[in-house]
Amino acid sequence: MAVIGIDLGTTNSLAGVWRNGKVELIPNTFGEYLTPSVVSIGEDGEIFVGRVAKERLITAPAVTFAEFKRNMGTDYRYSANGKYYTAEDLSSFVLRRLREDAEAYLGEPVTEAVISVPAYFNDDKRCATKNAGKLAGLKVERLINEPSAVALKHHMGVEDAETFIIFDFGGGTLDVSLVDAFDNMVEIQAVSGDNYLGGKDFNELIAEEFYRENQVDRKKFTGEEQGIVLKEAEALKWELSERDEVERKVYLQEKEYTMRMTNQHLIHIGKELFKRMSLPIRRVINDSGMSTEEIDKLILVGGSSKMPVVGRYLKTLLDMPVVLDDSPDESIAAGVGIAAAIKERTGDVKDMILADICPFSLGTEIYDGSFSPIIERNDTLPCSRTREYVTVEDYQQELSFRIYQGDNMIARENLLLGTMCVTGLPLEPKGKVGARVTFMYDINGILDIQIVSGDQSLHKVIMNKKMGLGQKELEARLEELRKMTLSSVEDENVRYLLERANRLYQECTPSVREYLAVQISRFRQILSRESNARARREVCVQLAVYLEAVERNKFDFDGFDEAFFEDDCGDGEENV
């Protein structure tokens, strides 16, 4: 049975597998590698994942969810049809779809996966990701940091030593890693990031600017109409990758509005977002102790890194080449596929070594409430560190250790992982009695703690309280989610066409709506009475061609200068 690699993204997800000496990306039922990380719940409990669900962000926004990766490991609940779902529940539906697509592609069962996570995911978020894998019927022993996966993909087959920064800017998160690679070794030197910064924030920024420029209160629009504005904002953002100025028409409540933007104006209104991008870069360079002269280049990956303004901004910050990866949407999945092969010691990659690091410090709270790190951020994994602690009061009879993960100097501001306590200490003046505390942390995120004081020895393995999906609880949750079936592959294309048609109906002018309604009605009638597979395919193709024409002709693209940032980016092939 194959072990697959999965890039579980905020905006899109995809899977890969190592076969025939290379990573093969796995297509979904539409023949595409990218599956939108969107889930919609039907009234009958049917689950829609991917393209169909993305269309339902407009047509059924109350029961359709996107960008839930940002809430992984939190108590946030999503409500649909009287039931509640966590981010890990919704992520498990995406993983189930990827698993089923992989089984169809490979022709064999898939029971295990390596899944990528943002480097700056804390323990709660990582454990929630593993739980999502369990709920999807996958064994997940290994998680890999997204920039580490990209580093593996980038250094594969490269003989020369190189030092580079991976700037992974996705739909919902930003990860930055500094990598030193040589021979068959990929060594992560430092990581930083922002779990709440991504392309989504630019979509919302453009949407807010639309409301401001048109002098309308967003509250006057329904949820569906606000969804249309966000969708148009995202489309405008991507058009800005091809031209310096974009204008789109948006139809809301039978009124036409204009949404316009230039790259320069996007930089202006996005000033705070761009400033946030610089912070993780500054941090990894400072943490590594390197100078910018020692770093060969910065590599842009992640779908949102394709925005020209991102590369343009980074080039003003750094005196080094800034290059866009040749496949920014797919790099993580390719790297996770390589990581899966390394885990299985497969083929040409079995001798490659990835030396990853601890993204957060691990330590304990001391007497004044401050945080005392034992394993420091950016220590290479696996690692073992020991520190000694002593009593602070005369005749103190116990030492309590509250274990935290994080880098705030105030302990309680970090993530509490667990508590251990040494009792029955001998009655001695302060400072005379103590304990040796040893932390051992491995690449799978398992923290092994040993505390020795006199003849006492305590031992505890912390895998996070939220990994407590015990077997009974897991089986109960699995049984509940199994009752909710994923939409069938056979019906997927039909449903997608109907959802796309309904979404276009809401977006278009009355004259187009009238004809579109006729086409939808005809489509439904033919499918309801036609059982011949070929005839059904033909009517699907006819509607798809018509919808494509409607989509294509909605907007006027004439009159724009095709020379993009010609005077601003300068010369050199490294420019984005």
Q: Structural class of the secondary elements?
A: alpha+beta
Oligomer: single chain
The coarse silhouette is globular
Tell me what portion of residues adopts beta-strand conformation.
Answer: 25-35%
Q: Evaluate the radius of gyration.
A: 26 Å
How many strand elements?
27
Characterise the protein shown here:
- The model is unreliable at 464-468 and 555-576 (pLDDT under 50).
- The chain is built from 14 helices and 27 strands.
- Strand 26 and strand 27 (456-462) form a beta hairpin.
- Strands 1, 2, 3, 4, 10 and 11 form a six-stranded mixed sheet that branches. Strands 18-17-12-13-14-19 form a six-stranded mixed sheet, sandwiched between helices.
- 35% of the residues lie in helices and 27% in strands.
- The protein is an alpha+beta fold and 576 residues long.
